[in-house]
Design goal:
heterotrimer, A alpha/beta (346), B alpha/beta (387), C mainly beta (132), A: 346 residues, alpha/beta, Peroxisomal Thiolase, Chain A, domain 1, three-stranded mixed beta sheet, 14 strands, C: 132 residues, mainly beta, OB fold (Dihydrolipoamide Acetyltransferase, E2P), three-stranded antiparallel beta sheet, 2 helices, 8 strands, globular
């Protein structure tokens, strides 16, 4: 059904600034080493004052579209939970910035951290049904961490964009989603920071949905973890994906390449997709990729892809791992708070 | 075109006039000029008013009408002229042309700006309108930053130093200590300038002219009739004006203002003079680098040597050419629309021997140079002492 | 100016895509775009064209006293840059250590927030550049 449809190109964008988990811990009087180790996160990306989920979405898209004709894009979907506007789509700004306007559809999706992969499903369906020729799916966030909250250590900023169309370099095999009404993490309309249900976000939320979606896809495609060369999971910290892999039967070494959170923090709607991009940076034609995202509220999208010839030419100049390290500059908590508008009058 | 002379001048003190409104300043300067001209007032046939941004500073447009009304001069025609910081200069030129053409015999030219009724931030925003709003100011550039970009280039191309630019401020402050109309009457040292804190590198606080209130008025009369009113008319030998691109990036050069160069060439041609014939020059020093470029572009010093010349004292009182005897925009103050006319007032006082405390010796010819924005408009006038 | 939406919107496409104009008569590239060629005037034929995304710094200044709306970003760099097609314009230089902001430094386009009309107003996005 989906033959010949999939990822045509991809791109990732992360801000230049970093703050170490130990620096955040210092401010709150916590043991930095301990916190960092416990989370499996070393540092996170920090968006500058003039960056937001829209600018990062455009930067990631520009990388994805460097050898593509943007005017042939028929849909742009942006998944984010840190939109600059509550009402006014990021998608239309992105569409204008990349030169895809005006003959296209699209919009912004919200499903916590899985809004990016939900955008992928929308684009895959539209391309497979020939409703559009190309679809651009983006996951982008500059998620806000409540000062002093556990999530502040990991809430990072980043974006990933995948161009979906025919003659793919990563062919789409199938998808399976698992969705329930589970309020593990949320942000009310006018609230500045999200709230979460502590330990409830683990087993009944992340693990239940990731494992269910993962099992569901394996069953649907009649495959086992052995059939896949890489596994990418939503990565709110450096630990959950390893546990999820274990529960589903994927060995740890298949997860490593797609686990970026220890270096860049949790990039929310972009997280699984950035992990996916990192895998595409190295995967060879014929290899298979298993990806499961998770979005609080709650749901998981599981995907299976097969890498095709042409993947080499589709890779951006800089790999995700290179982007995570190059040109980075560390800031302290005060500068971080200024840029992230955590100071009251900003 | 027939010859035109300035038969009277007057100005308010320049400074922060909390007690004095726009119309009150106009009244004060106008009354002084009329008295100085030896006219009663009803001889005036037209008014030209230079004002950059009364709309944004005091919410008042239509100031041509306001001036005529406040001076009791209705129904004579009264026209506002605007060219950012050259508003006064272009108003003066329009006044000159109206008399030179024979349309009128006696006109008044005023320059006014009331800048301190709004916050400093809002004033800075309003001043930004002198540049390219949509493509320079919109991107976060400030007016000082635009001149700073020229300063940087001048330093790279000619080795001009921050100390050399500072010398312009030091000299202008020194001149202003003798000018009772100046906003700042205290001397500053090179060290003061160097330590005054960066506004937009390499320009520091004391490299920049201030926000000021003030008004200046000149009465123009056909030279052939001037002696009916004044015993010390000052003849206008040349009036010229030139334009250049609004945005700095569109200019051919970042180290000089071609509008100044062209206007100066035309003016010297009209007057049949050369820079060496000028004893006093009131030039547009909105920033110290502006004075450095001005004395080069006007032809007083070779391109690239303006910094050194300033530092070597070649523009001090009674040096090769006395530049900004009033204290310039820097120390006398810069009520934007008024500056161009104030320069004329100072030039006339110097030519008439009335510049108490700062009088240059043997002043035969004076030159005024008024610039709009970062160089999109330049106006040059040359004056001769009346016989 | 509050809520001057048409003003911000009118050239947003040009700001996002670095879309200028090129005169087909004399070949001059303009960014910001011009409707009339400064050299050819009536003889000019201007067409819209996306400008190259790379250039070099011609002059620069670090602004310390920022205008209203830009205070939090201060100090920041503005520069006049020249694109590889000769077009020159003023822009901010971001994401670059101070010592790398130099005359002649190679720069590349980035997409950033330029300013916003108060906290609840529309956001103006556009071009900035960083040294590569």
């Amino acid at each position: 059904m989906f033959k010949g449809v999939g990822i045509v190109s991809y791109g990732v964008a992360v801000p230049r600034m970093r703050i170490k988990v130990s620096e955040i811990a210092r401010v709150w009087g916590k043991d930095g080493e301990k916190v960092s180790k416990g989370l499996g996160v070393r540092e996170k990306t920090v968006a500058s004052f003039d960056e937001d989920s829209c600018t990062l979405a455009v930067e990631a898209s520009r990388v994805a579209l460097r050898n593509q004709d943007a005017s042939r894009i028929g849909a742009v979907f942006v998944g984010s939970e840190s939109k600059p506007y509550a009402v006014k789509p990021t998608a239309s700004i992105v569409a204008e910035a990349i030169g895809a306007s005006p003959e296209l559809t699209g919009g912004d999706l919200e499903f916590a951290c899985k809004a990016g992969t939900a955008s992928m499903q929308a684009c895959l369906a539209m391309v497979a049904s020939d409703m559009v020729e190309y679809g651009l799916a983006i996951g982008s966030d500059t998620a806000q961490g409540r000062p002093g909250d556990a999530l502040e250590f990991s809430a990072g900023s980043g974006a990933a964009a995948v161009l979906i169309g025919r003659n793919p370099v990563a062919e789409f095999i199938d998808t399976y989603s698992y969705t329930t009404d589970t309020p593990d993490f949320w942000r009310r309309q006018h609230a500045e920071f999200p709230r979460h249900a502590g330990r409830f976000t683990g087993e009944p939320a992340y693990f239940k949905h990731v494992v269910s979606a993962g099992k569901g896809l394996l069953a649907k495609t009649a495959t086992t973890p052995e059939d896949y060369d890489y596994a990418v999971f939503h990565q709110p910290n450096g630990k959950f994906p390893l546990q999820a892999a274990k529960l589903l039967g994927f060995p740890e070494e298949k997860v490593k390449q797609g686990l970026l959170t220890p270096l860049i923090g949790n990039t929310y709607s972009a997280a699984a997709m950035i992990g996916f991009a990192s895998v595409l940076d190295v995967a060879e034609p014929g290899q298979k990729i298993f990806m499961v995202s998770y979005g609080s509220g709650a749901g998981s999208d599981a995907f299976a892809f097969e890498v095709k010839d042409g993947i080499k030419e589709a890779r951006p100049e800089e790999s995700v791992l290179a982007l995570a390290e190059k040109d980075k500059v560390y800031v302290d908590y005060a500068v971080y708070a200024k840029h992230r508008r955590k100071l009251k009058t900003l | 075109m027939r010859s035109v002379s300035v038969i009277g001048v007057g100005m308010t003190k320049f400074g922060e006039h909390w007690d004095s409104s726009f119309r009150e300043m106009v009244g004060e300067a106008g009354a002084k000029a009329v008295k100085d001209a030896g006219i009663e007032g009803r001889e005036l046939q037209a008014i030209y008013g230079g004002c950059m941004a009364s709309g944004r500073f005091i919410g008042q447009e239509h100031i041509g009408a306001l001036i005529a009304d406040q001076m009791g001069l209705n129904p004579i025609p009264s026209t506002r002229c605007e060219a950012a910081c050259a508003s006064g200069g272009v108003a003066f030129r329009q006044g000159f042309l109206s008399v030179a053409s024979g349309a009128y015999d006696v006109v008044a030219v005023g320059g006014v700006e009331k800048m301190t009724d709004i916050s400093t931030e809002d004033a800075a925003l309003a001043l930004g309108g002198a540049g390219d709003q949509e493509w320079e100011l919109f991107n976060g550039a400030t007016f000082p930053a635009i001149y700073a970009l020229m300063a940087r280039r001048h330093m790279l191309d000619y080795g001009t130093t921050e100390e050399q630019m500072a010398a312009c401020a030091v000299k202008n402050h020194a001149n202003a200590t003798h000018n009772p109309y100046a906003q700042y009457r205290r001397a500053v040292t090179i060290e003061d300038v160097m330590n005054s804190g960066y506004i937009a590198e390499p320009l520091k606080l004391l490299d920049c002219s201030p926000i000021t209130d003030g008004a200046a008025v000149a009465i123009l009369c056909a030279t052939e009739k001037a002696r009916q009113f004044s015993s010390k008319p000052v003849e206008i030998l040349a009036s010229s004006q030139a334009s250049d691109s609004l945005a700095l990036a569109d200019r051919k050069s970042l180290t000089g203002l071609s509008a100044t160069r062209i206007a100066a060439e035309q003016a010297f041609k009209q007057a049949k003079l050369s820079p060496a014939d000028i004893q006093v020059a009131e030039v547009h020093d909105c920033f110290t680098i502006a004075e450095v470029m001005a004395i080069e572009d006007l032809g007083f010093f070779k391109k690239g040597t303006g910094g050194k010349a300033s530092a070597d004292g070649e523009t001090a009182l009674n040096a090769r050419v006395s530049v900004n005897t009033s204290g310039g925009l820097k120390a006398c103050g810069h009520p934007v629309g008024a500056t161009g006319v104030k320069q004329v007032v100072e030039a006339c006082w110097q030519l008439r021997g009335e510049a108490e405390g700062r009088q240059a010796a043997n002043v035969e010819h004076a030159l005024t140079h008024n610039v709009g924005g970062s160089g999109a408009t330049a106006v040059v006038h040359i004056f001769k002492r009346g016989d | 100016m509050r809520d001057a939406l048409p003003l911000i919107w009118r050239n947003s496409s040009e700001r996002y895509q670095l879309k200028g104009t090129v005169c087909e008569n004399c070949g001059t590239a303009y960014f910001p775009p011009r409707k009339i060629c400064a050299k050819c005037r009536r003889k000019g034929r201007l067409v819209a064209k996306i400008m190259p995304h790379d250039g070099k710094i011609v002059s620069y200044s670090k602004i310390h006293a920022a205008p209203a709306g830009f205070e939090v970003e201060a100090p920041y760099f503005v520069a006049i840059i020249e694109l590889s097609n000769g077009a020159r314009f003023l822009t901010q230089i971001v994401d670059t250590p101070d010592e790398k902001v130099r005359e002649g430094a190679a720069v590349r386009l980035v997409f950033r927030r330029i300013c916003e009309d108060e906290k609840e107003g529309a956001i103006a996005y556009g071009y900035k550049f960083k040294v590569v």
